[in-house]
Design goal:
Layout lengths: L4 E4 L2 E5 L7 E3 L9 E5 L12 E4 L2 E3 L3 E6 L3 E6 L3 E6 L5 H19 L3 E10 L2 E6 L6 H10 L4 E9 L4 E2 L5 E5 H6 L8 E2 L6 E5 L9 E12 L5 E4 L2 H10 L4 H6 L3 H14 L2 E7 L5 H11 L5
Parallel strand pairs: 2-4, 4-9, 11-17, 17-19
Antiparallel strand pairs: 1-2, 1-3, 5-6, 6-7, 7-8, 8-9, 10-11, 10-12, 13-17, 14-16, 15-16, 18-19
Length: 303
């Protein structure tokens, strides 16, 4: 069987585990693979050098992270180039992929010196808008609403940004709970659950497989309030830096690998280059179409 490589985050990826969420590429187009993902039996974390225990299932050094998801999979992420994984007995591939394309790839991107944000990135013209927020804020619902308007999704959940403000294309999908899918008028028939026991689905979104990195045109922090209408307000100075730090992806990985100085310099650089604004939307009724219009208007686009 011919070997298939994948591309994501500007990296060529050779994986033992099928990754249908990622764009495929021909091996002939790649001289040296950037990232290897290999299934193998992993040793205890003490076997891998000077790793320090920072949690019940987390060990790390500056270049290596050992992470166990009990009952699912164990990962060893090394030097921004390699992800080794050992599945638990009887676990399904969807569950492995969920953590591989989330926590494991997020740690690898941190090791490669990128600012990894927890949000979604949407292409708007020749730049992109990144929406950040805590789980349940409505980021994926908002990204899907943009997709329904014909805008391309650059990345979902894991959003890597370079120090000079370029966003790297990741996975074109949204992970949505059943009620959010219903709210958007989408049928769940044929959609794959992100894990067999969850009422949360993976919704593929249209995007050109040749999409290149885009300049970061705006950062929006999505949150809720008790008022009926959504608002967009600019953040100033230290507020912008603080919100960026708060919405780093898996901040405990940053602390575990001792990457605090890297995070600080990256957040300072991005906060100084890009407008950061806070969106407050109703906690009771999510008028997502109206919010899309407001964001487009804020970015100078006629909806």
């Amino acid at each position: 069987m011919s070997r298939i490589l994948h591309k994501a985050y500007g990296l060529s990826i050779d994986s033992d585990l099928p990754l249908p969420e990622l764009s495929s590429m021909s091996p002939e187009a790649v001289e040296d693979v950037d990232v290897e993902i290999r299934q193998m039996t992993l040793e205890a974390p003490e076997h891998y050098g000077a790793l320090r225990q920072v949690g019940s299932f987390l060990w790390a050094s500056t270049t290596c992270l050992w992470l166990q998801i009990p009952g699912v999979v164990t990962f060893l992420v090394r030097e921004g180039r390699q992800i080794l994984f050992e599945p638990a007995a009887g676990v399904d591939e969807d569950s492995i992929r969920l953590f591989l394309l989330g926590s494991a790839i997020g740690a690898l991107l941190m090791q490669r010196g990128l600012l990894v944000l927890h949000g979604n990135a949407v292409r708007i013209g020749d730049r992109c808008m990144v929406c950040l927020g805590h789980s349940g804020a409505g980021k994926s619902t908002l990204a899907t609403a943009f997709s329904q308007r014909g805008y391309e999704i650059l990345a979902d959940d894991v959003v890597p940004v370079t120090a000079d403000g370029w966003v790297l294309p990741g996975i074109a999908r949204a992970k949505l709970w059943a009620d959010s899918i219903k709210h958007l008028g989408i049928e769940t028939t044929g959609l794959q659950r992100i894990r067999p026991m969850l009422e949360k689905f993976s919704l593929p979104l249209d995007r050109s497989p040749a999409l290149e990195p885009l300049a970061l045109g705006g950062l929006y922090i999505l949150d809720k309030h008790n008022l009926p209408d959504s608002t967009i307000e600019p953040l100033q100075g230290i507020q912008r830096f603080g919100w960026l730090c708060e919405h780093n992806y898996r901040p405990r990985f940053i602390d575990a690998m001792g990457l605090q100085a890297q995070r600080f310099s990256l957040c300072v650089a991005i906060a100084g280059k890009v407008k950061v604004k806070q969106i407050m939307r109703s906690s009771t009724v999510f008028d997502v179409d109206s919010l899309v219009d407001k964001i487009l208007a804020d970015m100078g686009v006629v909806a």
